[in-house]
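Deliverable D5.2: sample structural annotation.
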Amino acid sequence: MVEDAGRGSDRKKGQGAGPDFRYLDAGWAMLGSVGGGLLGGWLLDRWLHTGPWLMVVGAMAGIATGMFQLIRLATKKG
């Protein structure tokens, strides 16, 4: 197969969507972390009948994980 030189052939293979989508990745990572923490805490609260406490703990853990991922993605070179 012949690669077309006019259509973004300067991008390396396996690099992903490129630097333009880095911030979109950070947003999805934050949303997934907080949502996963909330969902996990809510399910544990229903199972253990502990009220909203595990959901609050799960939300805080999700926020911390999301912030860690946000900083990691923001400081990533490339």
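Annotation notes: The radius of gyration is 19 Å. The mean pLDDT is 81.
The annotation will be released with the project's public dataset once the embargo ends.
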